[in-house]
């Protein structure tokens, strides 16, 4: 990543360039005999321009100090630099040719000025114009004014307009901000701002203005671009430029979304967070898109359950759906190579977006890692990112001009200064990062001779540069070395993230001490100065961070860094031990008072003296599963020497340290609540799901059922397990599941009460509702209380986890044995029915379970499960229960629910299930509140076996529901030809029922035609005589048949010879009713009978009707489901002249097309 370049530094580069131009022009004026008088004018203009630029630099330096938020948008400076570059390049080349060539060539060069007279005049005019433009800026009294003087006003306005329109295209109320906060775990705008600040204005123009591959990507559709480059080549800066470039293209129909993966922020390396950030950006640019984002938010936040976390596959589908709201979507993502273990998943996920959506164009930046190359190389256009010499020169000049040491060198030793610039540019090998590191080193040298020597010894690589820094650190005193080593090691731990004062205190804590004061803390400047180009301050100045991604990679190299080698496990263990000792310092052994004012004052004073305390208090969160931790950290906290120190913290007898820590850890809680949890540290141990700490406290006599904050320790553990983030790593899952099981078992072993109620639900009910995985089984023990709401929760549980089988088996074992605990006996029947429903094997004694094991509440549920699962043997036993007769006699909703469940079933044993129910006393003609019987249901679901049984049991095929629909109508509406054939065979009044009208005035045949069911319509036509009463409808049968596009169906209706008796629409023909799916062959068939150019009563042609239906169909479909417009169809439906005569006026077909497109709000 390039280093920051301020406005003053940019102008300083121009000062240097202008001075160089002046010297060269003056030289040629003296030595070139053919130099025109205008050449002297050019020298004068260059000298005066240099003076204005120097004054401008001084002004910008002063204003930058006050105005820290300025952005570099310097159009006139860029234009000035282009002119000076052109002059300098040509003069410099002429001088090099002269000095390096043969004597004859030097002689000829001495005689010739390199510009023509017209060119010289133009150059003089250009410099005069630049001087006038820049002179205005000298009157600026603020950075804002200065920038306005140096920038095209319309460009600033457009930039602000784009930014405002991007952020406020949807109105953000409180709820919508809540949605954004939920999804936006990383903020891409912050990274874009950083990238913009780090970029010199002219950097990257070779890409956005001169690269044909980039231009094709930007202007193309569904285009794919991969930009790769070596470390330090400025990829992140270029990514920001690309984002700004495509932001200029954004409007209501073109969206831009982007993200930056940053190794320093683990959240930004998770695919879920990056895809969510893209989704949020797409949602912000369109109201319809935000509605979709809100729908997904609501899905993750059900009213009756705790919120769920977004899943990667769902987020990908969401982004693709959001992308459909736009004509074009640009996706730009930087740093794929910084994602560590997530590189492959991140790359595949992002690639899938552009692969699955025609509207998405994507550009990805990374190094050329093998995992990324394998995914992108084949289908993505490729651009190699290498810092161009011009970019490096501009950057080097600007960076050098910011260093006072090198400004003095420029003044006192111009030759050395020029040598420094030349050496840095030539040695960079395309790496901005390398240049920055060498400038730091050169500035550290004590004399010009040392700097000259250093130039000859510059390491050619970044790693060589880092070696040099570590060698200097190793020359420091041992105590300083130790502090710096820990600072470098602990910066990358990520969690907890320590501000600079906290880090300095942490690394200064020596072994064997139990106190530290301000005089014993290393100064931040010492760390910053000694670490040189390894570290830098974050942009907000609060943190130290690695100066570049390559620093961390270098520190992980086993053969390069010796004692400074970074091994996360070792670094974290040293950090954890330091934290544990620090929390036990005697100065923190204090029981809080009951005064909030006193406690706030103490906290502020403690944080001033010991800024590390707040970060240290977060250590124990690594005992739990969350996004920033892993099993390795939890294991370290559970092992020596850390665990012994933490035991002391949890020692109830020494509760001053515990009180102080809990009060800080629970800073959002009230003082009274903090006291509650301090009095019962078992709650905190349960929250951290730590079996070791729970064991320690229980042995000390902690009350396993104590209530703090309305929770028992068992409930604390359950809530913690439920909200902890899950992942797809089976090894990680095994570790956490084992930890959860041991913690829960320990609490239950000591008598934790599962019947304790919170917010109206028992603890065990919450277990059956929310808990997943093998830890469930630990609750199946004789001592566990089983409240009634737990049984209800068990029935309603979603049975979709493999460990559920073990749970069911465990419940069956404990509930069906001869000496089964009384409270578990009620669970036997539900467990058995759920086991059978899942097709599980079980022991013989459970197979003999009696139906009377079900409670009155559970009995109907057991019946329904047995019906849906097709368990004929179980259902026979259940229906033998005396309670079934009560259901049968009741003939209410419960009975209908059971019989309709059979009717809706798709199982092969559906007929047997229906027979069992009916033989046991259910009334076959039972109806629901809409007067619908189960024959209606079976005809709707296409269940032929159930329909046959019900007809045989006397259910009348002529029975109607509240809409006047018979089973015939419903089967026809759903296109079930096999049901229709069954009805015709079994219904003694089939012809009468085929002529029956529903409340819409349609016969079954016309219902089938209306719904476009060709096969069902043909089946009914086979049954019906050639009589008009079977064709009765408010619509024409031929018109509906034309909509289907079926020649067989259309000709079959014509063959019935009842056309004269139809109710025809006003002067329209079947040609006016062609649907979007109709083929040219069918249209040609109709053309033999009807005029394709005839107008209906609304003066609309068949073409107009067809084209409108085609537009309506396609605008709501995915690309793969759209129907192409056949040229042959247009030839059949359009006149040769393309003109239609309407009311005596010729209307061109193109005018009709445009009218329809506008009416349907379709964007071409």
From TrEMBL:
ANK repeats mapped onto the chain: 677-709, 930-962, 963-985
Keywords: ANK repeat, Repeat
Classification via InterPro entries: Ankyrin_rpt (IPR002110), Ankyrin_rpt-contain_sf (IPR036770), NPHP3-like_N (IPR056884), P-loop_NTPase (IPR027417), PigL_N (IPR031348)
Cross-referenced SMART domains: ANK
Family annotation (PROSITE patterns): ANK_REP_REGION, ANK_REPEAT
Residue span, Azaphilone pigments biosynthesis cluster protein L N-terminal domain: 2-175
Protein name: NACHT domain-containing protein
Organism this protein belongs to: Fusarium torreyae
């Amino acid at each position: 990543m390039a280093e920051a370049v301020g406005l003053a530094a940019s102008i300083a580069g121009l000062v240097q360039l202008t001075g160089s131009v002046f010297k060269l022009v003056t030289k040629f004026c003296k030595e070139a005999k053919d130099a025109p008088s205008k050449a002297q004018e050019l020298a004068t203009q260059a000298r005066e321009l240099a003076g204005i630029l120097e004054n401008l630099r001084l002004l910008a330096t002063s204003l930058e100090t006050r105005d820290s938020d300025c952005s570099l948008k310097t159009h006139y400076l860029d234009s000035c630099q282009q002119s000076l570059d052109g002059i300098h390049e040509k003069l410099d080349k002429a001088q090099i040719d002269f000095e390096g060539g043969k004597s004859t060539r030097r002689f000829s060069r001495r005689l010739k000025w390199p510009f023509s007279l017209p060119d010289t005049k133009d150059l003089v005019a250009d410099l005069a114009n630049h001087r006038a433009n820049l002179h205005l800026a000298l009157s600026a009294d603020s950075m804002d004014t200065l920038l306005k003087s140096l920038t095209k006003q319309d460009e600033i306005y457009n930039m602000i307009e784009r930014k405002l329109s991007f952020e406020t295209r949807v109105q953000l109320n409180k709820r919508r901000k809540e949605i954004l906060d939920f999804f936006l775990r990383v903020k891409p705008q912050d990274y874009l701002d950083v990238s913009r600040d780090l970029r010199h204005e002219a950097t990257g123009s070779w890409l956005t203005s001169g690269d044909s591959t980039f231009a094709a990507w930007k202007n193309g559709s569904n285009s794919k671009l991969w930009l790769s480059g070596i470390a330090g080549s400025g990829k992140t800066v270029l990514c920001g430029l690309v984002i700004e470039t495509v932001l200029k293209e954004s409007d209501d129909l073109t969206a831009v979304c982007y993200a930056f993966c940053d190794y320093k922020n683990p959240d930004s390396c998770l695919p879920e967070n990056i895809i969510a950030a893209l989704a949020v950006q797409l949602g912000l640019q369109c109201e319809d898109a935000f509605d979709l984002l809100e729908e997904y938010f609501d899905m993750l936040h059900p009213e009756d359950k705790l919120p769920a976390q977004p899943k990667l596959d769902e987020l990908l589908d969401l982004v693709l759906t959001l992308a459909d709201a736009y004509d074009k979507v640009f996706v730009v993502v930087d740093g794929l190579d910084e994602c560590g273990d997530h590189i492959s998943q991140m790359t595949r996920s992002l690639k899938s977006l552009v692969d699955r959506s025609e509207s998405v164009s994507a550009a990805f930046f990374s190094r050329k890692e093998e995992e990324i190359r394998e995914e992108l190389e084949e289908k993505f256009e490729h651009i190699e990112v290498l810092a161009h010499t011009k970019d490096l020169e501009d950057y080097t000049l600007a960076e050098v001009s910011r260093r006072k040491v090198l400004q003095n060198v420029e003044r006192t030793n111009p030759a050395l200064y020029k040598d420094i610039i030349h050496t840095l540019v030539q040695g960079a090998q395309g790496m901005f990062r390398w240049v920055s590191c060498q400038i730091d080193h050169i500035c550290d040298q004590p004399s010009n001779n040392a700097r000259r020597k250093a130039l000859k010894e510059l390491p050619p690589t970044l790693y060589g540069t880092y070696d040099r820094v570590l060698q200097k650190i190793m020359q420091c005193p041992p105590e300083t070395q130790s502090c710096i080593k820990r600072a470098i090691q602990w910066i990358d731990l990520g969690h907890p993230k320590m501000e600079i004062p906290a880090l300095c205190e942490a690394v200064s804590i020596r072994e064997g001490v139990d106190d530290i004061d301000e005089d014993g803390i290393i100064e931040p400047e010492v760390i910053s100065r000694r670490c040189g180009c390894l570290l830098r301050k974050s942009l907000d100045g609060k943190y130290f961070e690695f100066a570049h991604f390559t620093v961390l990679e270098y520190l992980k190299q086993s053969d390069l860094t010796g004692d400074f080698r970074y091994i996360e496990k070792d670094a974290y263990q040293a950090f954890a031990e330091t934290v544990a000792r620090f929390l036990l310092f005697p100065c923190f052994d204090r029981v809080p008072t009951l005064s909030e004012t006193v406690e706030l004052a103490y906290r502020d004073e403690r944080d001033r003296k010991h800024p590390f305390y707040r970060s240290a208090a977060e250590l124990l969160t690594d005992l739990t599963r969350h996004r920033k931790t892993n099993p390795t950290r939890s294991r370290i906290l559970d092992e020596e020497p850390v665990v012994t120190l933490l035991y002391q913290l949890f020692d109830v007898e020494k509760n001053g340290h515990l009180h102080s820590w809990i009060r800080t850890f629970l800073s959002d809680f009230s003082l009274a609540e903090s006291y509650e949890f301090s009095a019962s540290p078992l709650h905190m141990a349960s929250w951290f799901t730590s079996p070791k700490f729970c064991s320690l406290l229980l042995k000390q006599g902690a009350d396993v059922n104590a209530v703090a904050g309305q929770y028992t320790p068992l409930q604390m553990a359950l809530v913690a397990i439920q909200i902890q983030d899950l992942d797809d790593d089976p090894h990680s899952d095994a570790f956490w599941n084992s930890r959860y099981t041991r913690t829960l078992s320990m609490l239950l072993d000591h008598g934790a009460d599962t019947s304790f109620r919170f917010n109206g639900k028992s603890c065990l009910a919450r277990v059956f509702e929310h808990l997943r995985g093998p830890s469930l089984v630990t609750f199946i023990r004789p001592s566990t209380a089983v409240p009634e709401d737990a049984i209800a929760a068990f029935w309603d549980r979603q049975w979709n986890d493999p460990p559920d089988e073990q749970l069911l088996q465990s419940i069956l074992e404990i509930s069906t044995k001869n000496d089964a605990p009384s409270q578990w006996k009620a669970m036997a029947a539900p467990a058995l029915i759920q086991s059978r429903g899942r097709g599980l094997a079980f022991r013989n004694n459970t197979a003999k379970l009696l139906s009377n094991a079900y409670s009155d509440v559970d009995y109907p549920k057991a019946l329904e499960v047995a019906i849906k699962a097709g368990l004929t043997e179980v259902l026979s036993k259940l229906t033998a229960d005396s309670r079934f007769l009560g259901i049968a006699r009741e003939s209410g909703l419960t009975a209908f629910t059971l019989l309709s469940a059979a009717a809706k079933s798709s199982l092969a044993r559906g007929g047997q299930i229906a027979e069992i129910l009916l033989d046991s006393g259910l009334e076959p003609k039972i109806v629901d509140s809409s007067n619908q019987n189960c024959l209606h249901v079976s005809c709707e679901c296409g269940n032929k076996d159930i329909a046959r049984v019900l007809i045989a049991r006397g259910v009348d095929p002529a029975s109607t529901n509240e809409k006047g629909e018979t089973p015939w109508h419903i089967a026809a509406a759903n296109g079930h030809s096999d049901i229709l054939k069954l009805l015709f065979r079994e219904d003694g009044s089939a012809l009468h029922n085929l002529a029956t009208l529903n409340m819409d005035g349609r016969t079954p045949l016309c219902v089938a035609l209306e719904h476009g069911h060709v096969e069902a319509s043909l089946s009914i036509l086979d049954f019906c005589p050639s009589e008009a009463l079977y064709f009765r409808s408010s619509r024409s049968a031929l018109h509906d048949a034309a909509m289907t596009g079926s020649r067989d169906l259309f000709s079959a209706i014509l063959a019935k010879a009842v056309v004269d008796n139809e109710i025809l629409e006003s002067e329209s023909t079947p040609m006016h009713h062609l649907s979007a799916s109709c083929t040219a062959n069918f249209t040609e068939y109709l053309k033999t009978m009807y005029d394709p150019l005839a107008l209906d009563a609304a003066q609309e042609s068949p073409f107009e009707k067809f084209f409108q239906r085609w537009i309506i169909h396609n605008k709501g479909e995915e690309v793969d489901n759209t129907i192409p417009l056949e040229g042959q169809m247009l030839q059949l439906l359009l006149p040769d002249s393309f003109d239609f005569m309407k009311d005596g006026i010729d209307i061109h077909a193109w005018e009709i097309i445009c009218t329809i497109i506008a009416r349907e709000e379709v964007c071409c």
